[in-house]
Specification:
The structure is a homodimer of 385-residue chains.
Chain A lengths: L3 E11 L7 H4 L5 E6 L3 H4 L2 H9 L3 E5 L8 H13 L4 E6 L1 H13 L8 H4 L11 E5 L11 E6 L4 E6 L7 E4 L9 H19 L7 H23 L4 H13 L14 H13 L3 H15 L5 H10 L8 H18 L14 H12 L13 H10 L2
Parallel strand pairs in A: 1-8, 2-3, 2-4, 4-5, 5-8
Antiparallel strand pairs in A: 6-7
């Protein structure tokens, strides 16, 4: 096991009716800015439920945080929060709203250029406004971690940051609030959570038995539960299991003490920034090709993944790895998510464009062994055509 | 899944060399009381390493916290801490030292009778001194939770308490610090962690797939790694896996959203209080008999346990349950821990004595369904003779 330093102070209040707990969780005298997304939280009644729970507190609202939350948009929330002397933020939405709220929380007390939060990877944040979240979309895990990804539309930069100051104080997870999600978003969330786990699990062996078993448990749950949530949107048990799995997939726990990859994500970010593809769809495109190209470096963990997650027992090593990758691709496709660039109207022209963007961002040696050079990215995208 | 409220703010610094991090984790101006146990931390150099890491801070020491930490002993630490105006506590040891430190942390600022911490189950604690731990024995999970069990020798009361104020601020887990442990303590720790998981897993189904998979992962790791730590005491990977498993077994995570039993522990506490048996040995005695007596109420989870943990696929339901219980008993015996009262020189006389103690403590309806009445305890202990 690798040495590690793990801490996650976020409080999770889970279950039907949990939104009512806001009244106990937000300071009584708080001036609260509620951040939300494209309007679904307003339409399905979640925002009303939130306002009711917050009672007589001074409330301000900032709607319209978009998927791949935009720096340009979020600066508006920073300005509003400063003007109204807001002292508590509440994100009501999915990963984009929560990621955006983390940026706003760090930017409000910042004296310099807020973009430095991104260029410094989060180091520019020395303090942040406290905030909580009401999660409406299981996917990114942002509700229980201190990471965020922000896009600057003007320059097509999509960059991550993290800071110990931007853990949510609490997150409320009510599975019934996810019943009305469009199937496309649910499927995206399943793929996103799945790939989060794979990035922390299919690397090289590090004698970390608990982390491996936990990762496998999350993948097995996604395989079992994911399709159920699409077939029966109001199946509480399935929704609850999906929601908790997505949270556990990226809260630092399965990452503690093991190597991590994240090359699929970083390549995917560039595809989103350049062509506007949904985040999860970029992962579904890149991951199978990545596993194929990196099959030697990942051999032992791919074999373990084949056996423990997909129950593949027959065939020689190469065949078992092939089958595991094929099953992964079939799982994504079965959720309605296409796994090749051509399915999205993209062709070989993306290859050099993505490589150029990665190079511009200094990302020229990715993956758990820093072996994913531009040449490897080229092979991966070639395999994803 | 049941509704839940989960938060665990303890920071874990894991790995060889982690004790040196004390210098960054303990406030520079702190007046520190170091609590330790029977002398092994002094003999194997851990205490020296701790003193060196703490540098020029004002240090006070309180050694001699015994297994099943005694209220009477701990009052001495409370007195010393008050007299010397200590403002930070550091537990160096296993679960007993850490449990004792939690009591001391809560008792120091308490105006009334410290025993009320136990009679109130922890509610009497309104604030506590901050403290950290240096773990030397993987077993109880106390290093990453807010629970504690204290024994009052004068009255043979062994009672648990918990409070949100007594989470350790940090815990340092260096697997090399466990190499020199006596085999008896290592084996006890494996059984303790195993039974912690079973108490949170072998209950009744609650559609909590992640929690089940995590629990199974911890049990599988104990089965795989436990014996290795006894055969090769300096196998770092095995020690590291055992250490992290024991921590994860009782940090609240696998308990979130599922029913919990704990009857085996509460009966075991009375056996320790009355006859001085090691805590883990009482669990090894009670658990197999408990699973046998409660086989109907626990039927579905026992079958799942048989299949996923022990790989038992053949036989009818009753046979699979019998085999799973037998394998559990064999696992404990294989670690050198006997599983019957007679092995410890005890006979039928314990039955009514234990029941009388449970009744005196108001514990007359235990278990995940509150169905374990004195009659059921009688049947369990009869089966453990």
């Amino acid at each position: 096991m690798l040495n590690f330093d793990f801490q996650n102070p976020t409080r999770i209040v889970f279950g039907q009716g949990s939104i009512a707990k806001l009244d106990k969780l937000v300071p009584e005298a708080a001036r609260v800015l509620i951040l939300s997304g494209g309007g679904s939280a307003a339409r399905n009644g979640t925002l009303d439920e939130v306002r009711t729970a917050l009672g007589k507190r001074s409330l301000f609202e900032f709607a319209g945080v978009e998927p791949n939350p935009a720096y340009e948009t979020l600066l508006g929330a920073v300005e509003l929060a400063r003007r109204e002397q807001v002292d508590f933020l509440l994100a009501v939405g999915g990963g984009s709203v929560i990621d955006g709220t983390k940026f706003v929380a760090g930017a409000i007390p910042l004296a310099g250029d807020p973009w430095e939060i991104l260029t410094s990877g989060g180091k520019a944040i020395k303090e942040a406004l406290p905030f909580g979240t009401v999660l409406t979309l299981p996917a990114t895990g942002s509700e229980m971690n201190n990471g965020s990804v922000i896009t600057r539309k003007a320059t097509q930069d999509k960059l991550p940051f993290s800071s110990r100051h931007v853990f949510p104080q609490f997150s409320l997870l009510d599975p019934t609030r996810t019943f009305s999600l469009p199937a496309r978003q649910v499927a995206n969330g399943i793929v996103d959570a799945f790939v989060h786990v794979v990035e922390q699990y299919v690397t090289y062996p590090a004698d970390a038995k608990v982390q491996d078993r936990f990762a496998e448990g999350l993948l097995l749950t996604l395989i079992e539960t994911g399709p159920q949530t699409l077939i029966r949107p109001d199946d509480y048990a399935a929704r609850a299991n999906l929601m908790w799995t997505a949270t556990m997939a990226l809260n630092g726990l399965i990452a503690a003490g093991v190597p991590q990859d994240w090359a699929t994500h970083l390549i995917g970010h560039e595809l989103t920034a350049l062509y506007g593809l949904d985040h999860a769809r970029t992962l579904a495109i890149v991951l199978p090709a990545m596993l194929h190209v990196r099959r030697e470096a990942k051999r032992e963990k791919l074999l373990q993944y084949a056996e423990r997650v997909w129950g593949i027992a027959s065939g020689n090593e190469a065949e078992r790895i092939d089958t595991a990758i094929a099953r992964t691709r079939e799982f994504f496709e079965g959720l309605g998510i296409k796994t090749r660039l051509v399915d999205y109207g993209l062709g070989p022209e993306v290859i050099e464009a993505v490589i150029a963007r990665l190079q511009a961002h200094g990302m020229v040696a990715l993956g758990e062994r820093r072996e994913i050079t531009p040449e490897v990215v080229r092979a991966v995208l070639q395999g994803a055509l």
